[in-house]
């Protein structure tokens, strides 16, 4: 390609960061020194666009921001047009295209943290670190809801480091710990506070747990521990059953996707396996970003090998040789543990050219997101992996036909995948008889965390375990894209929640009591969608702005015209948006208006 | 900001050009022609017809030359660019057009861009190439510079300037030695293979590497890719044709197509890309010294007879002078009067100083143009014309032989008039009462005389958005490629076989030595065009004026930096231009354009070593030295 | 000798109760047009792959949970489509309101007509409603980028990118309502990869991209399309033979386009063809 570069040169550090990822440049035309041979002959550098996001991470991780020289060097190395790379880099909130300090504190101001005093934390951080934008920034949900209010510090360097903060230990005065915590250097903290001691699972160690049985009980770094507690039994059974047998088992189990859309997993696998076009790809969607959701993080941090085994089974069933594990950039602990687990599994023959000696080749590439809720959408995740802006694609064609790199792709959420293990271990029938489901309980409860119930339990039973701290005014089910409910007796099943005009969604159970500023919460929901809209389609790009504007007006003064406007814009977003983000951006607000009478 | 349009006729009086009425100017112009022809006979007249004017104008122009004056001395600036392509293709296939269509480029498997910077010089043609690349075609670029085109190529072969024949020969030898030549096609449709095979035998990959500078492995890869492709296109531009042995260069490329059977089939072919909007049409219309309209052979008595019957005059049974020969004949005093229509040889010819000298020896020079160019400033009579593409009706023929309608959108400024009107007025003054009420009328006359154009009514051209020739019938369309006949099994329908050419490598005439250590090559930039007469009229943000482009290594060696003015000297002249650093060049190779002759007369550096067959000059290879300017005082 | 296209299967669909037969691969929009139904479009370009970003063409497909973009959804056998259902009209109305309240549609052909047809009230969002208003970017003498009129349809990016020009001078940068069409680091065009072919201007549906001539004439109030003629002729530069449509007002060329169905150009030109007419 005849790309044109401006004259910005990378610093040595930037160049080193990129070269550490890509290796040294092969020719002068890709940024190396000019040799006589280069001036006589050149082979086209094939675009390696799919490495764009990792390369941007490499620079951002090392330097803390991405300069024009660094971007140009990345583009030269990967044969990507600079304008396009700029468009991609500017899409993600974790990247900065302007200089900033190496250490940036991301303060969660989203729903669960907000219900537990995040505003106070924000004020204290601001007093401590100055205005937002450089040393700190407000963040959408960090997935640390069981420790709300929470914050995450990311510090660039070689290697980069991070620290997770919880301000929950000072009840009634959530921000009091801020100054002290901020004094702790990130690298001092090293491993996360959410380690084995605090797995985020109140039920940890209870007998009968299926999905959570190892979390907090085994060393997540140890493959031996994993195998000692039943690990890789399911994969062995899969090899016995053969791919078609695995799919039949999953079909029979009735497993449906846990990411929110509840599509039957077996059907998805079956459809992908049947596609004549090759290769097939597996994508594990670990871009868990729905506000109030943290179950996938808890699983990945506490039982990383389970996910690797489950991905291997899915790949075996659907004929994939390559799997991408796309994890959100705000989960550094999970990234660290998964990287270790993948490397260990590979070195022990559980990944690679000949998995467990069964002649099956499969490997996993871990890809980090960079701060974009939309990348959890099943087609936006493809664009993100491929190095494009994380914009959803229109469907059809569906991923099973044309997904990642235009090839048949099966995309499953983390929780969905790990359910495959008990299906194969116990058999479809036994599994279905007591189908486990994870719930992320946060907000005004004494024991927040991830809970495992069998389908059929009611909301009240779940709350009894989590112990609400005040009078429950409402529960937000399914996250920002979900709905508020007041009836605590609804059964926590897909059908039960649907009948109640809500959704199980990603399993968010955010408890609201009278201490919570409901209008503020709604404004935050509106702000969240406005922030996270990719901007591709008009109903969502402009509709989320108009929705937020109307809510601001309504919080000051209730006008019927604004309620009509909200409803009309909401309907158009629901009907005409490209993807689920726009289609659901009005759900929670609608339920609050209709059921909670916020603007009465 | 460029030139002003000519808005009224000018005549020379007391050494100066002054405004004149049309009557006076036309009378003066006609009188000069009459005087010279009366004194020296019709062959003292020469016409340069305009490659940017319509087919209709070119038809009337050559008819003026042949009928009103009675000579075949008509040519166009075709000569400075693609005459070798026409000469080479017509020698092999009997027809001088490119053999393929743009759509076929999109549908092909391998594209070889040889000496063609199409990304910049033919951007919309390159869109078709890009479509092919996105569909999976492989592209090879052969060019001394790593141009924008080369940067899209899967493989770039950076050969030494003027070593195209060794490279082509080595490709041919490799194809033959690998047994990849198309024996069935060679056997059936060609002659001279054995001699050809022997002639390329010395050109081993290593020998080619020695001479061309291209690694042997890359030559081998090109050979195998081209030969094994199901469909392959070979495209070239001035990198092939602006050499002293240009026709041989073209033949060397055609040899490769014959060797592999990459011609005469859908998706396989040979595409010279034309530099001017109607270079193709000018030749097709007979505005060349050896062909009658329809590219029909002037030496064929049967064809001449048809034209003589239609035109009512005898036609000289011999070739006229081509542009190069015309210029020489001026120097010899054999051509004494010249009618230049839309041509600017003073600035477009190699060795421009010599050209000025020759034109100044004419007794009577008439220039018909839209600007008062450097050439027009030397004229005895200047006739202001309309801009063909937007101020007249007619047709152009593009590089894929597609005849398309040109339509009048503007009234010409001032008293400027349509070319055909002017020609008819002059014809009338010289005793031929021509009347064409419309361009369509001219075109219908063309159709009646040229079988290749017979089926192209204006109505069809409009409806089908142009038609590719040949189009003998009003009821059907021919395939988009030429020479399908070569694949016929019936020898009668197959026609004349295509001859291989036995060629010899002849390095550039202007030798690089210690005194002139750098090879200067020339070319175009995206936003500018030829001598800049047209393109200087718009404020292109890309324009940076003339520069001498060199690689960073040479700049460092000479101790010069970007923007610094340096002196560039060849064996013929010397100019001053600022330095531009271009990593696409390599040590020893520098580059200039000819877009800004008023500021930097690049052609005072180039050599007038011309191709003996086609008459094209070796713009692509001069030897120069570059010197840092020493501050005075 | 010339490869034939395989025959295309035909698909039967129903548009507003009317049976229509279209070739396989045709879109709902194609079917609507075959049925004589006018569906508004903005981001749809006849030379570009549908982006279906603007959503003004949404129609109701029987049995579908959401509305479908007519411009990109392929017609499927047995599909029953309603172009004028209440849901479809409602979304179209709101989309027009959202667009017209956030961007300047004054030079968008047919926008005013559609706003009236659908009863859209862009002013209902109040005077404080966020817009993309900003000064026009005039950084060169050939064309102007007036992003206050930009509806982010991606057409310019697609035309500059791999669908035609392959220059990649511009891309969508930023996210959500703050997304813009931008060069790298928002550099001026003159310092970008732009080659000034104007193929982005050719496809812009709102006049956000316009020729400097048109921009200046509009500013001084002399732009008058009713006094313009359009004549298609052939470019005067290289021998490729690009078709140019000259827009002439008062015997002056004020704009150059190219027919989108032309086999040589497909609506694309280079800087010389589109802007190099100054000399006439």
Describe the structure.
The complex is a heterotrimer of chains A (600), B (633) and C (280). Chain A is an alpha/beta fold and 600 residues long. In chain A, 41% of the residues lie in helices and 14% in strands. Chain A folds into five domains: 12-89, Arc Repressor Mutant, subunit A (Orthogonal Bundle), CATH 1.10.10; 103-172, Glutaredoxin, CATH 3.40.30; 223-431, NADH-ubiquinone oxidoreductase 51kDa subunit (Rossmann fold), CATH 3.40.50; 435-513, Ubiquitin-like (UB roll), CATH 3.10.20; 518-595, Up-down Bundle (de novo design (two linked rop proteins)), CATH 1.20.1440.230. The model of chain A is unreliable at 183-197 (pLDDT under 50). By secondary structure, chain B is α/β, with parallel strands linked by helices. Chain B is 36% helix and 18% strand. Chain B has a seven-stranded mixed beta sheet with strand order 2-1-15-14-13-3-4. Chain B has a six-stranded mixed beta sheet with strand order 21-23-22-27-20-24. Chain C has 280 residues and is α+β, with helices and mostly antiparallel strands. Chain C is built from seven helices and twelve strands. Chain C is globular and about 55 Å long. The chains are: A alpha/beta (600), B alpha/beta (633), C alpha+beta (280). At the A-B interface, β1 of A face α8 and β7 of B.
Characterize the overall form of chain B: globular
Query: What's the pLDDT, averaged over the residues of chain B?
Result: 92
How is the biggest beta sheet of chain C arranged?
5 strands, mixed
Unreliable stretches covering 5 or more consecutive residues of chain B? none
- The side-by-side strand order for the widest beta sheet of chain C comes to 2-1-5-3-4
Q: Strand-residue fraction of chain B?
A: 15-25%
Count every helix of chain C, treating DSSP H or I runs of 4 or more residues as helices.
7
Annotation, overall tally of beta strands of chain B: 27
Distance between the termini of chain C: 44 Å
Largest interface, with counts of residues having CB < 8 Å to the other chain, equals: B-C, 69 and 55 residues
């Amino acid at each position: 390609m005849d790309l044109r570069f401006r004259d910005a040169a990378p610093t040595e550090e930037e160049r080193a960061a990129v070269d550490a990822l890509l290796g040294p440049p092969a020719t002068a035309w890709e940024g190396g020194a000019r040799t006589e041979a280069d001036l006589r002959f050149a082979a086209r550098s094939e675009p390696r666009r799919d490495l764009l996001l990792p390369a941007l991470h490499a620079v951002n991780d090392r330097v803390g921001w991405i300069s024009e020289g660094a971007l140009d060097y990345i583009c030269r190395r990967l044969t990507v047009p600079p304008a396009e790379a700029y468009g991609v880099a500017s899409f993600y909130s974790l990247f900065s295209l302007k200089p900033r300090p190496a250490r940036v504190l991301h303060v969660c101001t989203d729903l669960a943290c907000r219900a537990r005093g995040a505003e106070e934390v924000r004020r204290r951080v601001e007093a401590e670190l100055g205005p937002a934008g450089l040393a700190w920034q407000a963040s959408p949900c960090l997935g640390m809801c069981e420790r709300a209010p929470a914050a995450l510090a990311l510090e660039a360097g070689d290697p980069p480091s991070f620290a997770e903060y919880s301000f929950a230990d000072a009840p009634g005065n959530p921000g009091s710990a801020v100054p002290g915590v901020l004094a702790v250097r990130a690298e001092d903290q090293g491993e996360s506070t959410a380690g084995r001691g605090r797995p985020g699972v109140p039920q940890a160690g209870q007998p009968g747990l299926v999905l959570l049985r190892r979390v907090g009980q085994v060393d997540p770094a140890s493959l031996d521990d994993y195998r000692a507690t039943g690990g890789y039994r399911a994969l062995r059974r899969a090899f016995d059953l053969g791919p078609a047998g695995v799919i039949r088992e999953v079909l029979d189990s009735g497993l449906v996707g846990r990411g929110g859309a509840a599509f039957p997993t077996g059907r998805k696998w079956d459809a992908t396996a049947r596609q004549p076009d090759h290769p097939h790809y597996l994508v594990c969607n670990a871009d868990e970003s729905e506000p109030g959701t943290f179950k996938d993080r808890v699983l990945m941090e506490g039982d990383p090998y389970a996910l690797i085994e489950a991905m291997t089974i899915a790949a075996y069933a659907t004929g994939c040789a390559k799997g991408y594990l796309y994890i959100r950039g705000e989960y550094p602990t999970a990234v660290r543990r998964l990287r270790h687990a993948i490397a260990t599994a590979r070195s022990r023959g559980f990944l690679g050219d000949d998995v467990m000696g069964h002649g099956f080749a499969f490997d996993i590439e871990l890809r980090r997101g960079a701060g974009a809720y939309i990348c959890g959408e099943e087609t936006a995740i493809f664009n993100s992996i491929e190095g494009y802006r994380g914009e959803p694609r229109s469907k059809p064609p569906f991923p099973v036909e044309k997904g990642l790199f235009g090839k048949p792709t099966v995309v499953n959420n983390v929780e969905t995948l790990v359910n495959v293990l008990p299906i194969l271990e116990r058999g479809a029938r036994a599994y279905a008889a007591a189908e486990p489901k994870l719930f992320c309980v946060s907000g005004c409860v004494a024991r927040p965390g991830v809970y495992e119930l069998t389908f059929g339990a009611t909301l009240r039973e779940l709350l009894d375990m989590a112990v609400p701290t005040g009078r429950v005014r409402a529960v937000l089910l399914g996250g920002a894209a979900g709905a508020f409910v007041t009836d605590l007796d609804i059964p926590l099943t897909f059908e039960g929640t649907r009948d109640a005009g809500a959704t199980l969604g990603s399993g968010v159970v955010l408890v609201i009591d009278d201490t919570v500023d409901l209008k503020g919460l709604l404004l935050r929901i509106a702000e969240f969608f406005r922030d996270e809209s990719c901007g591709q389609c008009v109903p969502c790009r402009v509709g989320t702005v108009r929705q937020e504007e109307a809510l601001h007006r309504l919080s000051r003064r209730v006008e019927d015209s604004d309620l009509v406007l909200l409803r009309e814009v909401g309907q158009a977003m629901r009907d005409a948006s490209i993807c689920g983000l726009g289609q659901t951006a009005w759900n929670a607000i609608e339920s609050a208006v209709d059921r909670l009478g916020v603007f009465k | 900001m460029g030139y002003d349009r000519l808005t009224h006729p000018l005549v020379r009086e007391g050494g100066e050009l002054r405004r004149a009425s049309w009557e006076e100017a036309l009378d003066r112009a006609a009188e000069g022609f009459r005087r010279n022809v009366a004194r020296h006979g019709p062959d003292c007249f020469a016409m340069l017809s305009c490659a940017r004017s319509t087919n209709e104008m070119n038809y009337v122009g050559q008819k003026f030359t042949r009928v009103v004056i009675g000579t075949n001395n008509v040519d166009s600036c075709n000569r400075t660019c693609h005459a070798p392509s026409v000469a080479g293709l017509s020698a092999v296939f009997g027809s001088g057009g490119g053999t393929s269509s743009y759509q076929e480029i999109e549908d092909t498997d391998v594209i070889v861009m040889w000496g063609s910077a199409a990304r910049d010089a033919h951007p919309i043609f390159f869109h078709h190439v890009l479509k092919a690349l996105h569909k999976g075609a492989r592209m090879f670029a052969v060019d001394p510079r790593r141009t924008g085109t080369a940067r899209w190529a899967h493989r770039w072969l950076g050969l030494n300037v003027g070593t195209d024949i060794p490279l082509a020969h080595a490709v041919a030898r490799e194809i033959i030695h690998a047994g990849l030549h198309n024996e069935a096609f060679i056997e059936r449709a060609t002659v001279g293979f054995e001699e050809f095979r022997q002639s390329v035998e010395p050109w081993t990959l290593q020998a080619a590497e020695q001479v061309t500078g291209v690694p042997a492995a890359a030559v081998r890869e090109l050979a195998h890719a081209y030969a094994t492709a199901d469909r392959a296109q070979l495209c070239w531009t001035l990198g092939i044709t602006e050499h002293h042995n240009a026709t041989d260069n073209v033949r060397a490329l055609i040899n490769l197509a014959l060797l592999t059977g990459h011609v005469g089939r859908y998706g396989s072919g040979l595409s010279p890309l034309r530099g001017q909007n109607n270079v193709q049409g000018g030749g097709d219309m007979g505005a060349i010294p050896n062909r009658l309209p329809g590219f029909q052979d002037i030496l064929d008595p049967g064809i001449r007879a048809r034209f003589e019957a239609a035109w009512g005059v005898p036609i000289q049974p011999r070739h006229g002078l081509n542009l190069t020969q015309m210029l020489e004949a001026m120097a010899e005093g054999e051509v004494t009067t010249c009618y230049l229509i839309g041509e600017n040889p003073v600035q477009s010819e190699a060795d421009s100083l010599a050209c000025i000298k020759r034109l100044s020896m004419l007794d009577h020079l008439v220039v018909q143009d839209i600007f008062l160019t450097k050439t027009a400033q030397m004229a005895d009579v200047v006739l202001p014309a309309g801009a063909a593409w937007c101020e007249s009706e007619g047709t152009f023929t593009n590089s894929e032989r597609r005849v398309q309608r040109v339509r009048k959108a503007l009234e010409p400024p001032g008293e400027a008039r349509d070319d055909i009107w002017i020609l008819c007025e002059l014809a009338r003054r010289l005793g031929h009462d021509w009347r064409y009420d419309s361009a369509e009328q001219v075109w219908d006359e063309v159709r009646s005389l040229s079988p290749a154009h017979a089926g192209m009514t204006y109505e069809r051209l409009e409806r089908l958005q142009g038609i590719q020739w040949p189009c003998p019938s009003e009821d059907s369309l021919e395939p988009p490629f030429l020479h399908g006949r070569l694949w016929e099994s019936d020898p009668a329908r197959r026609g004349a076989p295509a001859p291989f050419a036995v060629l010899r490598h002849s390095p550039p005439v202007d030798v690089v030595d210690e005194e002139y250590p750098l090879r200067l090559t020339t070319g175009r930039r995206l936003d500018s065009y030829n001598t800049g007469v047209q393109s200087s009229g718009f404020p292109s943000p890309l324009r940076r004026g003339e520069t001498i482009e060199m690689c960073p290594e040479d700049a460092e060696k000479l101790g010069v930096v970007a923007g610094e003015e340096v002196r560039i000297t060849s064996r013929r002249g010397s100019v001053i231009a600022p330095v531009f650093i271009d990593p696409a060049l390599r040590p020893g190779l520098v580059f200039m354009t000819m877009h800004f002759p008023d500021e930097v007369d690049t052609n005072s550096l180039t050599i007038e070593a011309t191709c003996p067959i086609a008459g094209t000059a070796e713009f692509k290879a001069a030897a120069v030295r570059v010197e840092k300017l020493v501050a005075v005082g | 000798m010339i490869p034939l296209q395989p025959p295309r299967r035909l698909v039967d669909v129903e548009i507003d109760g009317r049976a229509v037969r279209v070739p396989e691969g045709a879109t709902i929009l194609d079917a609507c047009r075959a049925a004589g139904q006018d569906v508004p479009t903005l981001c749809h370009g006849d030379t570009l792959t549908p982006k279906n970003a603007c959503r003004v063409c949404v129609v109701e497909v029987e049995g579908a949970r959401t509305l479908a973009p007519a411009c990109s959804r392929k017609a499927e056998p047995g599909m029953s489509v309603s172009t004028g259902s209440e849901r479809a009209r409602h979304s179209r109305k709101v989309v027009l309101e959202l667009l017209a309240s956030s961007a300047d549609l004054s030079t968008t052909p047919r926008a005013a007509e559609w706003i009236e047809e659908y009863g859209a009230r862009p002013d209902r969002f109040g005077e404080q409603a966020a817009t993309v208003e900003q000064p026009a970017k005039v950084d060169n003498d050939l064309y102007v980028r007036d992003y206050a009129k930009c509806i982010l349809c991606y057409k310019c990016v697609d035309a500059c990118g791999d669908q035609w020009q392959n220059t990649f001078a511009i891309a969508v940068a930023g996210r959500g309502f703050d997304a813009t069409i931008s060069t790298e680091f928002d550099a001026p065009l003159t310092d970008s990869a732009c080659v000034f072919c104007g193929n982005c201007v050719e496809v812009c549906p709102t006049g956000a991209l316009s020729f400097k001539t048109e921009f200046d004439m509009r500013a001084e109030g002399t732009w008058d399309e009713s006094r313009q003629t359009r004549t298609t002729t052939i470019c005067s530069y290289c021998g490729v033979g690009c078709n140019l449509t000259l827009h002439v007002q008062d015997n002056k060329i004020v704009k150059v386009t190219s027919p989108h169905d032309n086999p040589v150009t497909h609506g694309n030109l280079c800087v010389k063809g589109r802007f190099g007419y100054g000399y006439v």
